[in-house]
Amino acid sequence: MSTDPAKPNVVLILADNLGWGELGCYGGGVLRGAATPRIDALAKEGLLLHNFNVESDCVPTRSALMCGRHPIRTGCLQSVPAGMPQGLTPWERTLPEILHDSGYVSAHHGKWHLGDIPGRYPSDRGFDEWYGIPRTTDESQFTSALGYTADVAELPYIMKGKAGSASENVCVYDLTERRNIDETLVECSKDWLSRQAAAKAPFFLYHPLVHLHFPTLPHRYFEGKTGNGDFADSMAEMDYRVGQLIDHIESLGLADNTVLIFASDNGPEFRAPYKGTAGPWSGTYHTAMEGSLRVPFIIRWPGRVPKDVTSNEMVHVTDIFTTIASITKSQIPTDRPIDGIDQTELLTNPLNSKSPREGFLFYIKNDLRAIKWRDWKCHFVWEPKVNQSSGRLESPYLFNTTRDPKEETDILVYNTWVLQPILKMKAAFDKSLKMYPAPPDPLKE
Questions:
Q1: Which entry of 16, 167, 266, 284 is 20 to 30 Å from 79 by CA?
Q2: Residue spans per domain, the chain
Q3: Which pLDDT does position 303 carry in this prediction?
Q4: 208 upstream amide cis, omega within 30 of 0
Q5: Burial of 347 by CB count in 10 Å (0-12 exposed, 13-18 middle, 19+ buried)?
Q6: Rounded average pLDDT over 160-164
Q7: Mutual orientation of helices 58-67 and 317-327 as an angle, nearest 10°?
C-alpha cells in the first residue's frame, strides 16, 4: 500500500444500473423498499454529486471510464452477444495501464464488458489480476431458458486471470451463481486488499458490482429481508457489500490514504419486474433523458475531500479517467483527444470551485441524440422511453433541467440563443472526430 499522499491508493466501486433515485442519500432508500445505511454514511464522509453524467449503456460507459474518451471515438458503442467483435482496441490506453507506468498495481473484480477474447480481458489491458464476468449478467439466464443449448449460443462463464497468463473459466454463470457473485467478488477484493496492505506499491482496485442489473436476484441470505421483493432485497445486499469493502479498507489501515469512489455506470433498469427510478428525472438508460445521464457519485478522500458536502456541478464519466490520472501523477496519452477533464479542484474544494466542464455531446451508438450545456438540454432525437422514439426532430426540443427536471415542456422558441453555444460545441466536436478518426479495430475488418 502507499502511505505517500502524492501517490494515494484508489478504490473505485461501480454499481450496475443504479438509478439516481434509489439510494437513501439521493432521496430513495426506505422509500424504495430498502434502507441503504452504509452508502448513505459514505456520503456523509465525503462529497456527493448531483450532476454526475454517464453514457447510454454498460459498454459505452465502461469504455469512457477506462480511457477517458467518448465511445463514438473508440467504437465501444453497445453491448453485443458473445462471439461478436467487441471491446477496447489494443490502441486505446486504459486507466490501469497508465497507472502501471506510475508504479501502481491493480485488480479488477466484477463485470468487465470490454472484451471477451484473449488479448482483451482485464489482465491483458493493464490489470495485474481479475475475477468476474467478461460480458453482461443477463447471460446468467441462458441455462434456464427454454430451448437453449450450448451448441447454438456460448455458455456464459465466470472467469479469472493474471497478467502474462491466459484467462480461464471458473464455472458456468447461471442463476445460482447470479445470486452468489457479489459475495464472491467482495471476498476476492478483500483478499487482494489484504495482500496489498503488506506491500509497498500504491494500488488501484476496480470493483464493478453486478447489482442491480437484471435479473436482479439477491443472495439467498438477503432473500425476503426487506419484505419488498427481489429488487429491494438486492439493494439491501448491494449496500451491505459496499459496507464490507469499506470495513475491510479501514481494518487494514488503508482509509487515510485511499481515494474511495462509489458510482453507477448507467441510469435505472426499465425491464419489469426490476424497474428502477431516477428520482426527479425522467427516463432510464438507453435514452437521452436526464434519468439516463445522471447517476450517483460519491467520493471520500480523508483530509482532501471535505465531509458531508453535495454539489450540482457537472461532471462526466470521462472525467474520472483524467482526474484519477491527475491525483496519481500519471501521464495521459497525448497522441489522441482525451474528452475527460481534470476535476481534482472541484472534488477537493467543492464549496469554492466550479466545474471546468460546461457540457458534452450524448450519443447512442452512432447517433447524436442530445447536447447538454450548463442547465440546458437540447434533444435532436426524441425518445423519452426505450423503443418509443419519434425519430429525428425537424426542430430540436430544448429544456431547462433546473426548472423542468422531467423535460416536459419544450422552450426552444423562447430561447433560440441557447443554440449558439450548443451548436458551437457540436461543430468543435465534429471537427475533432474528422481530425482524429479512431484506428480500425482489427476484429471488425
A1: 167
A2: 9-348, 359-444
A3: 97
A4: no
A5: buried
A6: 98
A7: 20
Let me know if the fold of 9-348 is the same as that of 359-444. Answer: no
Residue that the C-alpha cell 501521464 belongs to? 331
For residue 180, pLDDT over 80 is answered with: yes
> Contacts from 136-140 at CB under 8 Å and sequence distance 24+?
136/58, 136/79, 136/111, 136/213, 137/16, 137/111, 137/173, 137/178, 137/181, 137/210, 137/213, 137/214, 137/215, 138/213, 138/214, 138/215, 139/82, 139/173, 140/173, 140/174, 140/175, 140/177, 140/178, 140/215
Cβ pair 142, 82 in contact under 8 A: no
Is the pTM higher than 0.90? The answer reads yes
Q: Under 8 Å CB-to-CB from 95, ≥6 apart: which residues?
A: 65, 66, 67, 68, 126, 204, 206, 321, 324, 325
Contact assessment for residue 16 and residue 264, using Cβ atoms and an 8 Å cutoff: yes
Q: Which CATH architecture has domain 359-444?
A: 2-Layer Sandwich (3.30)
CB 132 within 8 A of CB 139: no
Q: Which residue has the cell 482496485?
A: 205
Q: Is 389 exposed, middle or buried (CB count within 10 Å of its CB: 0-12, 13-18, 19+)?
A: middle
- Kindly report the number of other CB atoms within 10 A of residue 348's CB atom: 16
Instruction: Give me the phi and psi of 183, to 5 degrees please.
Output: -65, -45
Give the model's confidence band at 268: pLDDT under 50 very low, under 70 low, under 90 confident, else very high: very high
C-alpha span between 410 and 248 (Å, rounded): 49
Position 435, amino acid: M
For domain 9-348, the question of CATH label 3.40.720.10 is answered with: yes
pLDDT tens digits, one per residue of 66-83: 999 999 999 999 988 898
Name the helix (H) or strand (E) containing 400. Answer: strand 392-400
Q: Tens digits of per-residue pLDDT, 102-121? A: 999 999 999 999 999 999 99
The percentage of the chain sitting over the pLDDT mark of 90, rounded to a whole number, equals 94
**What is the C-alpha separation between 218 and 231, in angstroms, rounded?**
8
Task: Give Cβ neighbours of residue 166 (< 8 Å, ≥ 6 apart).
Answer: 118
Rounded Cα distance between 260 and 298, Å, is 8
When the pLDDT of each residue in the chain is averaged and rounded to a whole number, the result is 96
- Look at residue 233 in the predicted model and tell me its pLDDT: 98
Which triple of cell numbers denotes residue 247?
470495513
